Amino acid sequence: MAPNLIRSPAVRLLHARQDHAICLRLAASYRLRIAAGEADQREAHAWALGLAHRWRLVAAELSEAR
User: Fold this and answer.
1) How far is CA 48 from the centre of its chain?
2) For residues 17 and 57, is the Cβ–Cβ distance under 8 A?
3) pTM score, two decimals?
4) Distance (Å, rounded) from C-alpha 64 to C-alpha 48?
5) Given CB 3.0 to 4.6 Å as the disulfide criterion, which of 2, 9, 19, 41 pairs with 55?
6) Degrees (nearest 5) of the Cα angle 60, 43, 34?
7) Residue 38 DSSP symbol
């Protein structure tokens, strides 16, 4: 991906929103695996939720800057 200096703020916001959505889908897939009995996926689920939270904060910050 291009450095932040090259990408416009609108593109950075779009990418942050896309990354947030990807992390939420990843967390949901881990949650399904946990429900299916794969308890070892709990750490991965927490990791994906943490990333989703971080990307949501980045997107909120970028949208305020607009």
Assistant:
1) 7
2) no
3) 0.83
4) 24
5) 19
6) 105
7) -
Radius of gyration of the chain (CA): 14
Is the pLDDT at 59 greater than 80? The verdict is yes
DSSP state of 63: H
Cα angle 28, 42, 47; round to 5:
70
Whole-angstrom distance, CA of residue 11 vs CA of residue 34: 35
Structure tokens at 32: 């399904």
Distances, alpha carbon 48 to alpha carbons 2, 3, 10, 41, 58, in Å: 23, 24, 24, 11, 15
Taking alpha carbons only, the member of 24, 10, 27 closest to residue 56 is 24
Determine contact, residues 65/9, Cβ cutoff 8 Å. Answer: yes
